[in-house]
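Appendix C reproduces, verbatim, an entry submitted by the partner laboratory led by Prof. M.T., so that reviewers can inspect both the input and the predicted structure.
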Amino acid sequence: MRSVFIFSTFVGMPLLALALVGSCLQVSDDPLATAAETVALAAADRDRRMDSGRHHTCVVRGTGAVVCWGSNEGRQLGHDQLPKANAPSTVPGVSDIVEVAAGDRHTCVRDEEMDVFCWGGKQISLQPINGLRDVIGVSAGGRDACALEHDGAVKCWDMYGSSVVLDEIRGVAGGLEVALGARHGCVRTELGRVQCWGSNRFGQLGDGRARFRAAAAEIAGLTHVIDIAAGKAHTCALRSDGGVYCWGWGGRGQLGDGARSNANRPRAVEDLGAEAVELAAGDDFSCARLVDGRVQCWGSAAHGQLGHGVAHEDATFARPVWVAGLSEATAIAAGEKHACAEIAGERVVCWGANEEGQLGEGPRLFRPLPTTHKKLGEPVLRLAAGSAHSCAVVDGGRVRCWGHNTAWQLGDRAASRCSTPIDVRNLPPAVAVTNGGKHSCALLRDGKVACWGTNGRGQMGDAKREMRTRAKIVPKLATVTKIDAGLNHTCAIRADKTLVCWGDNRFAQLGDGTRSVKTSPTSARALGRDIVDVAAAAKHTCALKANGAVWCWGRNDVGQIGDGTTRSRSKPRQVKGINGQAVEIDAYQNRTCARRADGAVFCWGDHKPKARKVADWPSATQITMGVAHICALDTDGMVSCVGNNYSGQLGDGSRIYRPTPFRLKSLSRVSEIAAGKRFTCARLEDGEVRCWGDNHFGQLGYAGTKSSPEPLAIDL
């Protein structure tokens, strides 16, 4: 309903949906747009994985399934079982979803094939939205929904009509982001301008008139726009110079210009304490996050939604007021009559209306001041990152995990997503931890191994296939010195330098010469002894021997074995092309990398069947890799990264691809690094942990789902 920033809750846990409408940011020839596009690229997430409408919320899980909860009066939850649902339920009939959008009483999703499906409103049942082409973004607001196509065109439809009829918004050119209010819409274009259409009773289209406009019209004089937010009947825009302009309904002071009157042209928000970097709009109030991390809001304070301690039916503030106690905000969001801010190192704070439990603590009275979650703080000894979850061994040997938890890979039957670290249950003191796709294992002080999470392929090594919500020791396995988990299998090096593996073996990734699943540890006999390092990936495994040779086995359809072929191998084959002795290996998904003593890094896989040099890190002491990025830790405690960066996984503050290593100047005194699929974490010398990149499942360790292109501290 309100533009791209909307807050939601998840079974008593605060979740922050802070993703922009999916878009393909294209470079414009207009020099005036350069600054706007640069900042937008550094601030925008690709897909909105969670969204909330008026009183309901939906989340896209890592499996591509969608779960919804909250009000179901229009069947917006995808079923007809309950009028309200405080616990999430899976929407039947949809799969491979990458983006979700929630309106007042309806929901829409976009899948991997760029198709759109909707349910709720008067349509009720799930149905495809035919007539769309190459959709890169979907949005919803009021009773409507819109799709942004790859060529920048916007097509909308009414979910409350007798049938779905597409209406292409005429006049739109080069759309990048759509924001929908109750009865109007606006699009930010690749030239940094804003075009609006729809109801204009209060001047919310910003064209100087008050007449309805079916075709989008550009707002004259408004340029260099990098963010837009739409409230019920007002709109706000953020320029690249940090200035904020609002227009439309202003009777509650939500335009921030010092008046309580409507405006049919953009008016500058007065008295901002610093340059703004992000906007959010509720029904009758607006907020801005400033460059110094503080937050200001303006408009109605009837429910305490301005966060400065005032809550009265007639209270309005037509100029920005400070949200009390906030100084390190990294993201903001606004719902109908409440707001939240994500705080670096302090989780998330929320304020405003709470009759539907919007603040994440169940239905209660409103809160006119932000509420902060308790900080813990405990030195971290070891770190690990999986597909979408992270774990740390803290002082004393306890293991704490956070992020995706649909298969209990966090070691506790908690919610399906935990943004804040939780203890793994029933786990003896550990010295190391490793994370797979949806399972985790810890190396214990006594040399044994304990695992937890999904077990359908024998990942637990306990001779069974029952999912484990708490840690269980792997039987008949001792004197282990190192462990590593792949997608659905795990390997361990024993004190005699032999290797054992267990779990999924459909692609011969266990190295025992068979393709049968092993629910107990099995020896990779053909590999022999002298194993000093192991790297388990999605469907292949590699081992490093004491003589510096690397051997791999398993699936090889894209050259991940590194033997110069694309033929899968049930027995180890030596990697070709390293041209020297390797001292470290790491693997992720379909790729493996090895570091030589001279700092040269060689990688293979992803359609490169022989090792090839990808980077030089002469002073590197450790490398770690995700699905398409690599980071290295240097002897001076600094971190450098290279590769894809669209989720901010390189930590350089941008989302720009880096073909050569880029040193993170904001991070120092690092002792260990660990990369997940599209995120990275670092352990500092003092035991602190900082993470950056994708955060759709809370894998960065702070509340919310907003990704961060810069390292942020978390509490353990």
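The chain has one helix and 58 strands. Additional entries are available on request from the coordinating office.
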